Amino acid sequence: MSKDDAFFWEGAQEGRLLLRSCASCGEIAHPPLPMCPHCHGLEWGTVEASGRGTVYAWLCSKHPNQADDKGRIVVLVDLEEGVRLVSNLLDTEIDEVTAGAPVAVTFVEVDGQILPQFRMTGDSA
Known about the structure:
Layout (H helix, E strand, L loop, with lengths): L5 H8 L4 E5 L5 E2 L14 E5 L3 E10 L10 E8 L4 E7 L11 E9 L2 E8 L5
């Protein structure tokens, strides 16, 4: 955790998906950067994301020492706020994932750290 992303992890501990919002132009930037890529501002605020989005891309990740393990589905999610977030997709089989599938954030404790993860929803994209 660094000063640039501490807000993200603190929000996750509270069950909130926080994104960085430029204090000068209001654009949302993710991943967090020291300087706004739109206006080059250096002052930031945060906005709470809806937690809803759609699957942009996905893959099945397996640990090299556990090749027989089911693995986990890693997704790139297009959030409603216009940025993408890398996370895991829970409770879904790899052959059930499609581009544009609607997902919603959930928070899961992994090794003592609360992480934002996603589940597919029944909503239409």
